[in-house]
Sequence to fold (160 residues):
Amino acid sequence: EIYDHEVEFTVEAYTPVSSALIPTGEILPVQDTVFDLRKQTRLGDVLPQCPGGDKNGFDHNLVTNANGAIKKVCRIENKNSGISLECLTNQPGCQFYTGNFLPEDKSLAGKSGAMYGKHCGFCLETQNFPDAINQTTFPDCVIRPGQSYDHVVIYKFRTL
Fold:
């Protein structure tokens, strides 16, 4: 489970979603919201405050402001395992997902007999904004003839 993981993101904004988890087209500041993870925060302290009812947790695009330059998005660490992870990217967004839709009863079988359930893992998906093709306020996601596409993501693992 990820409850003892501590996260720190370098983002100032996020893209809110509808009840169907589709972006609304807004870009809002993280300040004074559950998405304000700019200071090291224990996930177990913030996940109960997240939207989603019994599927609560993060499944949101965080705005990186990378603007094509490689930028550190976050650092996540777990003192129990002694492992830290930094994520860097040149993409405008990072979808942070905390396993909200995994089964509550840990009935999802994994490798070597491991069983997984809600909040048993997280994802950091660097990307353009979800639904950008339909949202005029989001960065353009269309690659036109003659343009190149460059997607960089770096995951740095370290021991604490």
